[in-house]
Predict the structure of Type II methyltransferase.
Amino acid sequence: MGKGNTEKKTKRKYIPGLAQLKFELEYDWTASEAKKLFTKTKSSLALDSIKFEDSIAGMKSMPPSSVDLIIADPPFGIDFTGKGSQYNRKRALVEDGYVEISKDYTTFTKNWIGCLSHIMKEKASAYIISGWTNLNAVLSAIESSELKLINHIIWKYQFGVFTKRKFVSSHYHILFVVKEDNYFFNKYEYYPEDVWEIPRTYHPGMKKNGTKLPEALVSRCIQFSSKPGDIIFDPFMGNATTAVCAKGLYRHYFGFELNLNMEEIHQSNLDKIALGAFYHPLKEFLPTQEKLLEKYPHLKKHIE
Ligand SMILES: C[S@@+](CC[C@H](N)C(=O)[O-])C[C@H]1O[C@@H](n2cnc3c(N)ncnc32)[C@H](O)[C@@H]1O
């Protein structure tokens, strides 16, 4: 009989809050380290630019293994313009020209998702946003691609469109996919769950296209899955939310948008934000020792 079998296993007692108290970040950077990394990036892509062209053709002409993270929020394929009365918006503030996919959403989805792994670096990942109506198409495109599904995140938002004879939709799906098992992931919360409650943002009086992701949601993806100086790619830029968040977090951006009417909006959104303006070292997102001791007073004796 081997030695291991005769020895008694010592059971560790579970102490509430202790693991959280001992939790350490694997990576973190001060603002000046982040800025330095930003200035050092080298790439053959036209960094920090948005091209007004079809993203499927555009991705095919990008160099292989050229991006660190992808945030993709494609058109939903539901004949969306964002101008319908159900959205409660002033029509004049919704920019024209939003490009929808009127036929064969499944083929469109398979085509663009099929382009992702080629442009992703080995440790890169992608967050693909989808409503529930065309989720099937997105999941089967992922299944037939070279990507691996790691998490199926639910984004819970507030104020879905009012309904009379069905439940109000108040969530989106976010598929977190990677190319290789050794993907980069900077866990900056002790217990990050796969349901994210993030309010939609409202910008009264500001012109935009019909859909805009909250900056908090895009920033969360960027902070978990990239380092300062990394290249964040968005094939469907819309209002340039990904570009704004990347700039604000000392990351570079690159992407495509078909609607030329959005050019001025991109410029104005990007001009409003200074380089690094959203940046905070990640340790600032963790609860302080004092806060944890308030919640778990029994932990005092575990502090040297
Ligand atoms: C859901 S919106 C993206 C919104 C964006 N995430 C934001 O926060 O503003 C999708 C965008 O994709 C654009 N689009 C549609 N087909 C495209 C294509 N083949 N290539 C590039 N952009 C496209 C639409 O014009 C629309 O602006």
Observations:
- The pocket of S-adenosylmethionine is lined by residues 54-56, 73-75, 98-99, 209, 211-213, 236, 238-239, 241, 256-259 (CB under 6 Å).
